[in-house]
Fold each of these.
Amino acid sequence: MSSLRAGTARGRSARARGGGWTPWLYLAPALVLLGGLLVYPIYQLGLISFLEYTQAQVSGGAPTTFQGFGNYQRLFADSQFWQVLAATLLFAAACVVSTLLIGCALAVLLTRVRALPRLALMLAALGAWATPAITGSTVWVFLFDPDFGPVNKVLGLGDFSWTYDRYSAFALVLLEVVWCSFPFVMVTVYAGIRAIPGEVLEAASLDGASQWRTWRSVMAPMLRPILVVVTIQSIIWDFKVFTQIYVMTNGGGIAGQNLVLNVYAYQKAFAGSEYSLGSAIGVVMLVILLAVTLVYLRIMRREGREL
């Protein structure tokens, strides 16, 4: 009898050891695909950033040489890089804050209007969300065109050019980025609000809490995991803005006054044929976004323990 139990235990142990590989076998095709689409390009990006790789090397006119951290030293010694990095951080922060404020406000509004206005707002927001970035950017440039755009005529601004001044150009791009980004925040937060028990909101109302106090003291704490997700994702998206800046400021504005890191890397790599320097900028962006992602994962783990 004891030998039978021992055999059964050994069989279970063997099945457990064998079963440990089963999930990885199912994940293997996806991991191979992700490795080809993500790992290898990142490896090539990092490799090129350590080489001297310009148009001469691409055409075979000069040998490829190893530069070590030389490209990074050139990059960090360039004052324009730090100006562009600061502009990118400030612009992304402004986009994230504006997107969250508008998205959360409209999510609360959706819970307080009737079905027909709610449906109309949802459809309008989803239409903005589904519009391709290049199409939305082109439409916004037309709307604010100093000669043919209706916005200047309605506001009485005459031939004021929104893209000539650095700050008005950034403001115009910010409006377009928020316009196509707030629906994600609105829909996500609205779904979270609908999941809050009605008794909790009713109790806050009976206690005489204002709408702002209800949001700050009741809704926001209960929606914290959702707000963390939409904030981190908005940071990643807005930090990588390319199409809106490139289209609406004609490649970065006058004398590069509206450059962000993505457009700056594009200009260095393709307009200037300094592919290694453009790759170094890409690696710097990757490191920054990885740091943001790690913060996101740490916060989510902490929120998971609290929940």
Note: The beta strands are 51-52, 65-66.
Amino acid sequence: MSGSTSNTGASDASDVLWLRPQRARRQPQVALSQDEIARVALAIADAEGTDALTMRRIAQDLGCGTMSLYRHVRTKDEVFDLIVDTALGEVEQPAAPSGDWLADLRQLAVAKRTVLLAHPWLARLVAGRPLVGPRALASTEFALWVVADLGLSMDDRVRVINTLHSFVNGFVQTEWEERTWRRPADEATEGSDAIDGGATPADDWRARTLPYLRHVLDSGRYPYFSAMVDEATSHPDPEADFAWQLQRVLDGLATVVNG
């Protein structure tokens, strides 16, 4: 959930992506719709990143003319809106709140992280982007439903939801950067696992920085940092870290609700 909407003036319904009429195409031309465009664009973004998303490339993969796309999406930004909303539709949520608002928010956070990890570009695109597509709105509606009876003002309900989303988005963005840093430079796709034995940016950094770090540790000037190097887990479990940090976020939100 991000931002707010306001009445900024009348506009023709066809100017709005989500209200634009879907025109069926006659055979033998390729059947085209926003859902079909989203499906193909999503696959391209997952495999090659959002920089590969051009109207020409999407049309090529759809087997249609580039101009045909403009009946459905008019800009690359609208393509981003489509794939963001389509991906957010994968976030699993129950039909109704359970009555345990903390458990429901925890479930939403875990489900959202799963989807953000499935689409490496998604956490970056949702940050600060108005999420008003039908699937995103369904998720927002459910989250507001979860916190509807907590005795909070509407502004505080929105803050609760945005706090949770900001934590999940930030955690996953950091998690993806960490994965990329530890992945061999010649990996073909953003989401694939590292190849054993391949050189990684992390390996290169260690080789260049190790003499400096030894100097820092031997200097005695940074005792707490040195203790961290000696005692902290070298490769923390992201699942355990996410669960621990999420619980602290929920604990903090509970203090707001319970006074």
Note: The radius of gyration is 23 Å.
